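Practice problem 4.
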């Protein structure tokens, strides 16, 4: 058999790293594919002080390196490569990269998202050194300092108001005419009434200036054409984010913005494919929520792989007939009927029996559309296919379906 990973994680940000820790610790053969240095967006944040248990002095690069080391200690393999194509519908899943192909029993997509950048001179150079895309992450670093916010949508207006709790002055740079923003009406009205907010209308940011830290920005009034150098300590840019999910288009279900839709187990609409971190459709995108996503996805993936392998071994592969009894352990009358099947199989050596708690094994229940209200239920499998089903369990009826 080809060399197959139990779990392949695409992306080495906090979500992918947490998944690697949990996957490898569960003794799964785990690979993390990352084209660059592990850490994702968090690794670009110089100071990261709001991760639980890590206070003043914590850095994004330091925290994510610790996560990567932790995953390595448990046996996760880091694969430096770039994913170019995916085949996730078959088994095993196939991930094609620039340097080769990788096979896996389960895949966690954790490629993250990235803030939309203005593309202004100095923006990239000073990212993490005064240029930020997350007020929740970095606001406290600008306590009693002056900052500007670029953008006028919901995120920009709400984050600007959050920044007023820390910064001395918060100035919002808006491309529109005075009084017009792109945010919802409630947020806009609240912001206009906030005396702590200042506004620069009809303006765009031309450049971010500074050597080691942000010192000023160059603004241009698009109505008059005039430019000015505006002194500030920080630049918060909120013109949206974009998930790195291009490879998933047409494969898994995405929302209208391109984020992956999952359930609370991080499962996508494709069996054995999970998503974690900022690429996922969710309310809050932070290191702590990415790590939580990764842990959940890895645990769910481990259960998926275990249940799939067990089902293959006990039900689909045998060359003799297999009776599968779905039951609810809280239904005493129903579980007593399982005893009838036990006795019947004991007296028929050519049969084997697999009992499935339908309240716990959701994978099999979903795969075969088992209705919990109709338990106990028996399926007869031959050569991996359902040949008969039985609701009214009795020795006579069992004899009929196996004849």
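Answer key:
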């Amino acid at each position: 058999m080809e060399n197959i990973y139990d779990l392949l994680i695409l992306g080495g940000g906090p979500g992918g790293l947490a998944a690697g820790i949990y996957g490898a610790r569960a003794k799964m053969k785990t690979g993390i594919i990352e084209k660059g240095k592990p850490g994702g967006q968090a690794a670009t944040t110089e100071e990261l002080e709001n991760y639980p248990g890590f206070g003043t002095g914590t850095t994004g690069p330091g925290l994510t390196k610790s996560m990567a080391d932790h995953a390595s200690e448990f046996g996760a393999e880091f694969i430096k490569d770039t994913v170019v194509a995916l085949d996730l519908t078959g088994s095993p899943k196939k991930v094609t990269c620039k340097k080769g192909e990788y096979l896996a029993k389960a895949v966690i997509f954790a490629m993250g998202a990235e803030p939309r950048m203005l593309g202004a001179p100095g923006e990239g150079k000073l990212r993490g050194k005064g240029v930020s895309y997350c007020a929740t992450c970095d606001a406290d670093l600008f306590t009693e300092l002056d900052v500007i916010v670029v953008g006028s949508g919901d995120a920009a207006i709400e984050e600007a108001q959050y920044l007023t709790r820390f910064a001395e002055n918060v100035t919002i740079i808006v491309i529109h005419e005075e009084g017009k923003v792109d945010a919802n009406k409630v947020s806009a009205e609240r912001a206009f009434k906030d005396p702590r907010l200042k506004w620069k209308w009809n303006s765009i940011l031309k450049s971010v200036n500074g050597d080691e830290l942000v010192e000023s920005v160059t603004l241009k009034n698009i109505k008059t054409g005039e430019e000015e150098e505006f002194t500030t300590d920080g630049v918060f840019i909120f013109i949206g984010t974009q998930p790195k999910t291009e490879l998933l288009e047409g494969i898994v279900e995405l929302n209208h913005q391109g984020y992956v839709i999952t359930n609370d187990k991080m499962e996508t609409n494709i069996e054995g494919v999970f998503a974690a971190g900022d690429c996922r459709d969710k309310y809050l995108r932070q290191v702590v929520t990415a790590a939580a996503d990764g842990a959940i996805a890895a645990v769910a993936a481990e259960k998926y792989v275990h249940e799939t392998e067990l089902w293959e071994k006990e039900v689909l592969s045998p060359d003799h007939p297999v009776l599968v009894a779905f039951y609810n352990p809280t239904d005493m009358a129903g579980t007593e009927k399982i005893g009838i099947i036990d006795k019947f199989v004991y007296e028929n050596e050519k049969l084997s029996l697999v009992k499935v708690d339908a309240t716990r094994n959701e994978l099999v229940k979903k795969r075969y559309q088992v209705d919990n209200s109709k338990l106990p239920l028996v399926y007869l499998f031959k050569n991996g296919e359902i040949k008969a089903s039985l609701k009214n369990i009795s020795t006579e009826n069992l004899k009929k379906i196996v004849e």
